[in-house]
Every structure is written in C-alpha cells, then in structure tokens.
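Exam revision sheet. Question 4 asks you to relate a sequence to its structure. Input first:
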Amino acid sequence: MKDRTSRRRPASEPPPERPDLFAPAPADDPEAADPAALARAATLASGRAMRGRLWTEARALAGLAESYARLGERARRLDLTVETMDLKLLFETINCDPEILRERFWVREGDDPDRAVKAAYWDHRRALMTAARQTQTELMRRVRNAERIAREAGGTVAVSEAGRAAEAETVRWVELTDEAIAEEGDGAASGRQGGTL
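Answer key, structure tokens:
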C-alpha cells in the first residue's frame, strides 16, 4: 500500500498577473480613457448579459454604463467654450433675458461654489455701466451744444417721439450714481431705473 503522502500533487497554477489599474492609456487605443466609449461598451455588454439571462451581471454593467455616461457629460461641460458650444445655445446666451442672467449670477449667501465667477460677472457689468454712463454723458453734452448753436443762429430744434425716448434713456444713464453702480448685483439695486446693457 502506497503512502498517500508520497503521491505527487499537481503543481498549482500561478495567480493571474494583477493589472496596473493606474497605468496610462495605451497609445494604440485612444478610446481607452473616453467615458463615452466606455459607456457604450458597458451598455453593449449589459445587453448581451440580459440576453444570456445573466441578470446580476446585466444590472452591474448597466450601472457602470450610467456612471461612465455621467462622467462623459461632466467632461463635455468642462470642455465647453464659446468656440465649441452649440450655435443655438450661443445665440440664446447672447440674447438672454437680463432677469435670467441676474438670477443665474446672483451671489448666494453662505458657501457658493461659483462665487468667484459671479463676482467677476458683476465687476465686469459695473465697468460696462460706468463706461456707458460716460458715453451717454458725452453724447448729451454734444447734443445740447448742437441745439444751443442752432438756437443762437435763429433756428429751431424739433424733437420726434423717438428722439424724446432716446433722450429719456440718456438722462437715466447720466443720472446713474456711483452708489447705484456699486450696488449692482445686490438686492437693493434689483429695481434700479437706469438703462439696460
């Protein structure tokens, strides 16, 4: 009778090599780090698992596909610039309702993650308002001088309804105080009567 301990046991297979999970993307696979491509691959694999009635794997792959899709959407938002954004969105942005801009750029109390860009927006808007007031003041001065010269020469000055409306808008800008401009973006300035930019 042979001793059981003398029997040769099959050599165990070496464990599979652990992949380097943080290695850079291979040069020959540009989609290896593309969330959209990974989402498509996970969605395709999930569909195959469902057809094979591998329900657990199908659910896990569907969740993975959704996660990659969210990453892809976030990456697109981060890469969005004026040069790359959709033209329809650019048109809507240029012609945006001022009240929508005021609401979006309102600086919230407490922790506001967008505080810096919102502050930059209001600083830029105040600078534009100051420049517009200077331009309108100079325009009014020139118009008044031209009217004075015309009257001194014996002429008359007729102002149309459109001209009166333009003059009223100019007066609003001219009368806009430094304090009102400084308050732009604050609640107290939301109902100001100055002109619009």
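Marking note for examiners. DSSP finds seven helices and no strands in the chain.
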